[in-house]
Amino acid sequence: MKRITGLPPVLPKRLRLLILGSMPGVASLAAQQYYAHPQNAFWPIFLKLANADNDITDYDARIAALKKTGVGLWDVLASCHRRGSLNSAIQNEKANDIAALLLRHKSINVIALNGGKAFNSFRLYVKVPQARLENLQIFALTSTSPANAGKTRAQKLADWQVIAKFLNKNWELYT
To answer: Burial of 152 by CB count in 10 Å (0-12 exposed, 13-18 middle, 19+ buried)?
Structure first.
């Protein structure tokens, strides 16, 4: 089994909220785009929460909308061995240096973890610097993956509503 490597982070100039997945799936890695699988609910959910145009399908336009709200994307895992896209198939994982990112970007005050694997990997590998603990909110959210078939897109959207208050238009000043 070949080792796979994740995508580079997407970071606006003034990063306020960081959304962390586990490891991009096969479609995302092939396209070199976060949440590229057409059935992944991430982009429709994010665009709805950010009050952006829900019909944005161009990846660069989606990234621009993300950055306008001060939101960054990355994954907890930097690399792993995996056949297919399922998180349950991940082996020999290595984590990204999220702690260093938190020290470099002191403006991050919210971390949203996209799914159980991201949450568990974050707990296992990320040692949040003591200086950042006081002003950091961390949310474990329902996975937007199509593999999470136990929840409808509407249920996933409802679960993600907890971060909507952090997606405010005043953040456009920080991009």
So the answer is: exposed
Reduced to 3 states (helix: H, G, I; strand: E, B; else coil), residue 124 is helix
Summarised one tens digit per residue, pLDDT across range 130-165 is: 888 888 999 999 999 999 989 999 999 999 999 998
Distance (Å, whole) CA 54 – CA 76: 27
CB 128 within 8 A of CB 113: no
No. of helices (H) and no. of strands (E), the chain: 7, 7
What per-residue string of b and e applies to 86-125 under the rule 16 or more CB within 10 Å gives b? ebeebeebebbebeebbeebeebbbbbbbbebbbebbeeb
List residues bridging with 141 in a β-sheet: 114
Q: What is the 3-state secondary structure (H, E, C) of 3-21?
A: EEECCCCECCCCCCEEEEE
Give the Cα-Cα-Cα angle 132, 170, 112 (nearest 5 degrees): 40
